[in-house]
Specification:
154 residues; 37% helix; 5-stranded parallel sheet; alpha/beta; single chain; Rossmann fold; 17% strand; binds ligand CA2
């Protein structure tokens, strides 16, 4: 079964408990439960983790380089600051999906820049907790298409 690592950055463990007007009322445990259900439906092995520590996230991305077919990352505040996370995802051999609950481009100007976007395959943002399931669906499609020859032309 293909394996997907879904990693969450700092403060996302507080979801549902603070700032519900921005991040919604769903807790990270509830998001993990919907991701597990989606992964079962999509035939994916899911590794779902959260850390408040940049170095731990870097180590998990390095672990994913050895074990995962796709990587989904909500880097939280490290999105906007972390060259270390950008360098780590740059060596991931498969698709990397950057994920955000909120639409970072509708928020403060300093949230518009993402180091992670510079190396990500694609970005999903602004769909709240649903974005997590959308990211898993996108990962499953990219894994299934792996090795396919591009179509078009004659
Ligand atoms: O929208 C997202 O998913 C973000 O990655 C969330 C980050 C923010 O810094 C990014 O710009 C966008 C913040 C995560 C903090 O999560 C909290 C949850 C509940 C209460 C307080 C913080």
């Amino acid at each position: 079964m293909p394996t997907v690592y879904l990693l969450n950055g700092p403060n996302l463990n507080m979801l549902g408990r603070r700032e519900p007007e921005i991040y919604g009322r769903t807790t990270l445990a509830e998001i993990e439960a919907s991701c597990r259900e989606a992964a079962r439906r999509l035939g994916l092995e899911l590794v779902f983790r959260q850390s408040n520590h940049e170095g731990e996230l870097v180590s998990w991305i390095q672990e994913a380089c050895e074990r995962a077919d796709a990587l989904i990352l909500n880097p939280a505040a490290f999105t906007h600051t972390s060259v270390a996370l950008m360098d780590a995802i740059a060596i991931f051999p498969g698709p990397v999906i950057e994920l955000h609950l909120s639409n970072i481009h509708r928020r403060e100007p300093w949230r518009h820049h993402s180091y992670v976007s510079l190396k990500a395959t694609g970005i999903i943002c602004g769909f709240g907790a649903d974005g997590y399931v959308l990211a898993l669906e996108a990962a499953a499609r990219m894994i299934a298409r792996r090795g396919e020859k591009p179509s078009g032309g004659s």
